[in-house]
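Why does residue order matter? Because the sequence determines the fold. Keep that principle in mind as you read this record.
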Amino acid sequence: MIVIGSVISIAAFISIQLFNYTFNQADTTGSEYVEERPSVEEFIGEIAETARRLGEENDLYASVMIAQAILESKHGQSGLASAPNYNLFGIKGKYQNDSVVLETSEDDGTGNMTTINAEFRKYPSYEDSLKDYVNLLRNGVSWNKQYYTSVFKSNTQSYKDATNFLTGSYATDSKYQEKLNQLIAEYDLVQYDKPIQSKKTIQVADGDSLMQIAQAHNVKVTSIKQWNQLNSDTIEAGQKLNIYQ
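Structure:
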């Protein structure tokens, strides 16, 4: 019995070692093919100036527009927002007779989520998605052309009034306003609600960091990353960066 027990123990030990070796090898091999996803700042930088322009032209908060795009599209990474769909806002129906059917989760108004299949608009580009979003807010829905007038700058005190109205009217998520306000604060999106006063290009010196550059120019690190569509805090000597004021 003692011999049998020893054999079983040895066999178990060998099996565990082989498992660990195989797991570690698979993990190491897999890590070589992991792609670095675009950062939220990169995504913001891709749509921000279009949002700023459309906001100025249409009496809308670009900050809210960008925050909704981040939230609705998972900063451009959702299946609906990715090529070839480019739908940043989860708008349903058809766009120029083009659409895609996908699963979506909806809040019943009490915090309970259900999954359904729905038809969503499919766009040629992010810019087309942004313009269609603006068209929806400016012209309302078929049964009420004034439906979204409560989000206009001229009808609100701040972007918080707009996000409050959108909760329950644009999205069924009962925490929609809270999520949008958090994104606007975290990424300093209110900067896009006003025109650019000045723009300059600087060159990174040896030993510079984003924090040092941000402090020197009295701006935020997240803003520098947005303006230059950076995926990380890493910068190199000689690199050129845009700085907005």
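Helices lie at 2-31, 40-58, 62-73, 126-139, 159-166, 176-186, 210-216, 221-227.
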